[in-house]
Design a protein that fits this description.
about 200 residues; alpha+beta; six-stranded mixed beta sheet; elongated
Length: about 200
């Protein structure tokens, strides 16, 4: 029995120090990999959110413009009644407290005898901390291009340009220049007016 107790050996101080150092190196390298993976994950989430918001904004613009009778830019949200347009709205990006939204404001007339119409005031897409830049340009009498850019902290995460066919050969109101119909980055054209038949 005494012989067994005498022959038992423990770890030396040097062995314990080497073990702790190796564990420390492994933890440090694993934490670096984990932090890098988390950074990439966060970037992917930001990119995915920007793309989903950009697609939502683009589809709203496309659906509104496709059947427009009159389109153009204007400085105010006030709309002058047009007997030929049953659905008159302005689309604009509103930013309050650092949060942005694509909004629609206007009036829908359900019949020729409906003189007052039904007011429309709704949020079409919540952008949150993302900023949206929208540019609508005339190509010809039946086509416009819609360019949407979604950015955050001056970094563009989503950019798309689509050609939209104007089913009703929309007339263009006063524009900024020969081709620009609407540019959300210009203060004088904050509102995109769309008057449609339905």
């Amino acid at each position: 029995m005494r012989k067994l107790v005498k022959n038992r050996k423990g770890f030396t101080l040097a062995e314990e120090v080497v073990t702790v150092l190796l564990i420390g190196i492994l933890v440090a390298s694993a934490s670096g990999i984990l932090l890098n993976a988390m950074r990439i994950f966060c970037q992917n989430v930001i990119m995915f959110n920007a793309q989903s918001k950009g697609i939502a904004v683009m589809e709203q613009l496309e659906s509104h413009l496709a059947y427009a009778k009159t389109i153009g830019q204007q400085e105010t949200e006030t709309i002058a009644a047009d007997d030929g347009c049953a659905h008159q709205v302005v689309l604009y990006v509103d930013t309050q407290n650092g949060k942005s939204e694509l909004k629609e404001k206007g009036t829908i007339y359900y019949s020729d005898t409906d003189s007052a119409g039904t007011p429309v005031d709704q949020v079409l897409c919540k952008l949150g901390t993302y900023q949206a830049k929208i540019l609508v340009q005339k190509v010809d009498d039946v086509t416009v291009t819609v360019d949407v850019r979604i950015s955050r902290n001056d970094t563009v995460y989503y950019s798309e340009t689509r050609m939209v066919k104007l089913q009703n050969r929309a007339t263009v109101k006063a524009t900024l220049n020969a081709s620009d119909i609407y540019d959300s980055s210009v203060a004088a054209s904050r509102y995109l007016y769309i008057g449609s038949l339905e």
